[in-house]
Design goal:
alpha/beta, globular, binds S-adenosylmethionine
């Protein structure tokens, strides 16, 4: 199973697939979740925006000069800059066990000198520890009016089951799913940590996936609006204004 991280840190064969595996539904997703705001002239930070996939949607009305992308993968930032020269791509060299194991631990979110109208993060806190999500969301709130980010509920549409079944025999899947959980993290598709961020310093951590139930997120962010997935996607949305 090819995941985003393999396209950047995987084998040469996996990296060669990068141009074929492009998801361009992120703009439509946030546009719907946020009630179709007028994006024109609004300054948008795409946190963990990779190579600017949000801009690929032809319906995207965010002006390139108003778009800022921060990501921990230097190569993705470079590709984004090549593709969208009028947009702003900034490398955020923060440690992430999966996407940037050579990065700097606990590096604060840089101040770009911009007050953002929208800060969006699609499938980013699905790959950081719980502690990091809390810390980074608090930092992001200093930089923008609306912060909207996705999360994956393990129970919604069998989200967690789907991933476990890709990597584990059926009897193990049933055993893993039998545990009560509010949230969990999954390392390399096989090591499941229930209500824990697990071993994030794990040397061979290629994939790191985190799941939160809707109830757990409501308790963590009591002032947030939590929206169910839209457009047939698997991710919920947490909106803070
Ligand atoms: C699954 S990809 C999603 C990329 C992009 N949002 C999209 O939808 O195309 C997760 C992204 O989050 C980035 N990322 C992980 N940890 C991060 C962090 N602490 N700060 C910023 N970006 C991070 C990764 O480098 C990767 O590009």
């Amino acid at each position: 199973m090819i995941e985003e991280v393999h396209l950047w840190r995987g084998t040469p064969e996996q990296q060669a697939l990068r141009s074929q595996f492009v998801k361009a539904t992120q703009f439509a997703y946030f546009d719907k979740q946020l009630g179709h705001p007028n994006w024109r002239g609004k300054r948008v930070l795409d946190f963990g925006g990779n190579k600017g996939n949000l801009l690929l949607d032809p319906a995207c009305t965010i002006r390139h000069q108003d778009y800022y992308c921060l990501d921990v993968i230097g190569e993705a930032i470079e590709e984004g800059h090549q593709t969208f020269p009028d947009a702003n791509f900034i490398h955020y060299d923060r440690y992430n066990c999966s996407f940037n194991p050579e990065g700097v631990r606990e590096l604060p979110v840089p101040d770009l000198g911009v007050e953002f109208d929208f800060i969006l993060a699609y499938s980013v806190f699905t790959h950081t520890t719980f502690e990091e999500m809390k810390e980074l969301v608090a930092q992001l709130r200093q930089h923008g009016r609306t912060v909207a980010f996705t999360f994956i509920d393990p129970q919604w549409n069998g989200n967690l089951r789907w991933r476990l079944e890709k990597h584990n025999p059926q009897d193990r899947v049933e055993t893993l799913l039998s545990r009560e959980m509010q949230w969990c993290s999954l390392v390399n598709g096989t090591e499941l940590y229930v209500n824990s961020s697990g071993v994030f310093d794990f040397q061979d951590c290629m994939t790191y996936n985190v799941y939160y139930t809707e109830d757990f997120m409501r308790a963590q962010f009591p002032n947030a609006t939590i929206e169910k997935p839209v457009n047939g996607e698997m991710q919920h949305c947490c909106e803070l204004t």
